Amino acid sequence: MSARLLSVAGLVVVVFGSAAAVVADPCSDFFHSVAQDTKRRNCWPEPFVSGDRASVRAPFVLQVANGWRRQNMLGEFHFEPGSGQLNEAGRLKVRWILFTGPQQHRLIYVHVAEKNEETAARLAAVQQLACQISPNDVPPVMLTTIADDDSPADRADAIGRKFQSSMPAPRLPSAGGDSGGGGGGAAPVSGGGTK
């Protein structure tokens, strides 16, 4: 009889023990869920706005990259016509890119020519000059097809010189005359008493 009683007692412990574990699990899940939801509510906008912030910044990153591509582009006026060799303006531009431009934007872009042979000559000339100037830190030289709407340096120089020559000479207003200060010509009012 005692073996039977012992087996019944063991069965009761197993059944009630597993039932207690099953009952404790939903309570534990409920309290865990409440704690998790409370933490989410307390830090509410942060987990959800990072994607929005990234999507707002993306066009600006693209604009900066396009601006540096335009700034570091060697176009038609940086090469000798027909040969693809760099002229003085092109050599100075490559030097500026290698030594003055920010380190993270030191990429050289070469505008494609009408003929493949001239494009290849341009690339070779730029790579050769970059290796001569800075053999230890040669930036990538890439082709680009963005519009090349620059103008020759002598034209920009002529416009600057014409502007300088057409400026009037600086002069101060005369000391005793009307300075044009917008005072309306009214005489100043003196003390307010009567005689």
Summarize the topology:
Elements: H1 2-42, H2 45-71, E1 73-74, H3 88-99, E2 108-111, H4 116-133, E3 141-144, H5 153-166
Parallel strand pairs: 1-2, 2-3
Helix pairs in contact: 3-4
Describe the structure.
The protein is mainly alpha-helical and 195 residues long. The chain has a domain at 70-144. The protein has five helices and three strands; from the N terminus they run ααβαβαβα. The protein has a three-stranded parallel beta sheet. Strand 1 (73-74), helix 3 and strand 2 form a beta-alpha-beta unit. The longest helix has 41 residues, at 2-42. Mean pLDDT is 80; it is low at 19-23.
Q: H/E series, N to C?
A: HHEHEHEH
Class computed from helices, strands and strand pairing: mainly alpha
Average pLDDT taken over every residue: 80
Number of strands: 3
Shape: flat
Number of helices: 5
Instruction: Give a quick account of the main beta sheet: strands, pairing sense, barrel closure.
Output: 3 strands, parallel
Helicity level, as a percent range? 55-70%
> Mind telling me the C-alpha Rg?
40 Å
Please state roughly what percent of the residues sit in beta strands, choosing from under 5%, 5-15%, 15-25%, 25-35%, 35-45% or over 45%: 5-15%
- Are there runs of 5+ residues with pLDDT below 50, and where? 19-23
Please state how the strands of the largest beta sheet are arranged side by side: 1-2-3
Distance between the termini: 137 Å
